[in-house]
Amino acid sequence: MINSLANLWRSLNFMLALQQGNIPEARRILKEIKQSGAKLSWQEKLFQDNLKLERALKEKDQQLREVSQKFAELDLEFTFKKFDELSLELDSLNTLNLAPDQKFIEFITQSFKMIQHDEGMLQCQGIDPRVFDDFESHLVKFIEEELKIYSRNTRFNELLKEAIDDINNLKGGKEPKYNLELSPLVYLMRYFLANVYCNYIAWFLIYKAGLLPTEMKILDIAAGPGTVAYGLALLFQSMSGFFSLPQLDISYYSLDQQKAFQYRGLQFWRKYMEPKGVNAYFRFNSSSFFDYDKKSRLIPKGYFDFIVISHCFFAESDLRIKSLRVYHEIITNSLKESGYVLLIIQDKKLFIPYNIRQSDDVFVERDLVTRFVKDLGLNLVWYQYLTSTGNRKRTENFNQFAKENLPVQNKMRHLSSQYLGLKFDLNYSLDDYIILAQLP
To answer: Which stretch, 288-292, 334-338, 398-402, has highest mean pLDDT?
Structure first.
C-alpha cells in the first residue's frame, strides 16, 4: 500500500512538473519512477521517448524535425492512436547506425597493423595501447585482490590446480566443465584478454561496415564473463579519442549456466567500466542454453539487434549437432527481422567437424563458411578470418613468432607465471573466423 501511494505521489509530481514546463524536474522524477520498478504511465513513456528523440536530434537534426514538431503539438489529451504512430517513428530512429569515421578507421588499421591479404583473410599484429594497457592493468589488479582472498584457504593450491587442469582442456580440443571454484579467475588470467581483443576487432569490422547502431540489444549465448560486452565497450573507448559519441544505449542479455563467470564479469565491469560512463544495462540468465525448450519464455521474442555466439562451438559430434539446433531455435525466436547474428569460431573448430583441412584455397573456405552458416539456418552476409600470422596454415614454433611479432600481455606476465606456471608470455593473438549472418 505504501509503495502504491509513493508511486502515485511521484506520478502526480511528474505531471505537475510537465504542466509547469519544468523539464529538469520531470527528468529527475522519471528517473525515480524507473528506479522504483513501477510501471510507467503512457504520459511517462511518451516523455521518456521524447528524451530519446532529443538525444537523436544531435545526429539526425534534419531527419527528426518533423517528428519533433509532431511531439511539440501533442498535449495531454492525445489519443493512443497518435501515441502508437509516434512510437513507430521513434523505433525507426532508435536503429540509427554510427557513421564510420575515416580517420578512426585509419588509426585502428595502422595501430593493429591490419593487412587484408585477400577477401576473406585479415592479418592483425597490433593493438590500441591507450585502451588495452589500462584495461589489462585494472584486470590484473582485480584478479590479484580476488586471489589474495582465496589464498587464505588451506586448499588453495589444490583448488588452483584443479581449475587449471579443467581450463587446459581447451588446448586439447575438449570442453572444460568451467564449474570449479577458481575456474573464472583462471580463465580471466589465461584467455580473457585475447578473447576480448578478438571481440573488439569483430565489433570494429561491424562498425566499419556501417552496421553498428547507437542503440542495440545484444543476446550473448554462452556469455561467460562477458567478452562480447567488453570488446564493444573498449571499442567505444577508442572511438571517444576521435569524435564525440552520441548517446549510446546498450542492453546486454547474458545467457550462461555458469553463474560464477557471469558474477566475475559483472564484478569487474562495475569496478572498471561503469566509472568510465559506459551506458549498458545487464540482464542475466543462468540457464543452460540446452534447456531452451523448457525455458524459452525467459528470453524475449523478436527483440535483439545482435545475437552473438563467441567461441562456444563443440568438437564432439553429439554436442555440436544439439547445440546448432538450439542456436537456430533461439535465433529464429529472438532476433529482430533486421537483426544480425555474429559468430566467432576458432579455425580448427570450424574445419574439423567437416573433415576438411584448412588451406589457402579461398573458394573452399568460403564454401565451408557458407555451409556452416546454413547449418544454423542462416544466410551469410560476410566473414573474415582473423590471423596473427598472415597465413591459414599452422606456423611452426608459434611462441617464438609471437615473441617477435605480437603485442605482449605485459601486466599479466607475473600472474600467469606465478599462478598458471607458464614459461612464456601471453600475447594478443588471433586464429578466429568472424562471421556475420542473418535469417533468410
So the answer is: 334-338
